[in-house]
Amino acid sequence: MKKILIAFGGNALLRNGDDSTFESQLERATEAFERISDVILENNVIITHGNGPQVGNILLQNEFSQKVTKAMPLHACGAMSQGLIGEILAEAYDSVRLRKGIMKDASVILTRTVVDPDDKAFQNPSKPIGPYYDRMTAEGLMKTRNWQMKEEGNKGYRRLVPSPVPIDIVERSAIFNCLNDGFMPICTGGGGVPVIKSQRGFMGTDAVIDKDLASSLLARILEVDKFVILTDVKGVYRNYGTPEEELIPEIKVSELEKDLDSGIFPKGSMGPKVRAAIEFARASGKEAVIGSLDEAGKVIDGKSGTVIH
Ligand code: ADP
Ligand code: MG
Questions:
Q1: For ligand 1, what atom is nearest to the CA of residue 239?
Q2: Pocket flag, ligand 1, residue 270 (CB < 6 Å)
């Protein structure tokens, strides 16, 4: 039995062309668990996941219903998305496990991730989120809600929020104990609800945390044997998207670091996955692997995807 942390990408819930109904996300999630059911049967697995499209939709529901009910802050919307996705994943997993006779229960853990209020990301919000607004509304929101906003071509204005580095997981012991008691934790959704340590405990703050960086941190905290990032491409490519693109089957941390530093991986997609894998492999001496959800079994065995060691 190995301890394996598996981070689901966006395609575990939604694929191109899917509508974002509860039912279609449940169907995708069921497919995802079918692909890893043998791994769950034979190992101690922790599941983490993204929340981009889901929290985006919650923000829309919030912002456009203000006349009826008060909008919740972004961090609370993040918490809502963890609850929503947690339900989808738990339902999907239960249907698979009952069919396959897996005894292990899943347990969804609402997770808060600690960030540093002095993180320079707070001075330089860079992540666009939520709906597009016209100029007048955007100017109003900048004043009344103190939002930073940026024009995105002719689509309109969008709110920019900081994306600070995750430094600790508040529920670390809860997750650890849950795993040791034989459950499969589903946690750290969307990178966790960003919180800042204060004299009153932990306070939610409006930011977004990269789910791969938070998953890597959790993988180190739990001292897992393997950290697996499942996404919608076969692995990490050099010259991605060009006729010369080439999959990297395996690579040493020191070599991959050079590629990362040279800036060949985009900040919004492959960059944080590569960084997350490097941080785990360097700290633990164990392998991280980035690969396709469609080949999850092979990826987890290190027979597909990019193995970072
Ligand atoms: P997820 O939703 O699974 O977390 P993202 O959509 O953020 O994943 O990132 C995966 C995407 O990264 C791929 O669909 C691909 O288009 C993009 N990508 C950018 N650069 C690379 C690269 N060098 N190798 C592989 N994929 C890359
Ligand atoms: Mg994606």
A1: 23
A2: yes
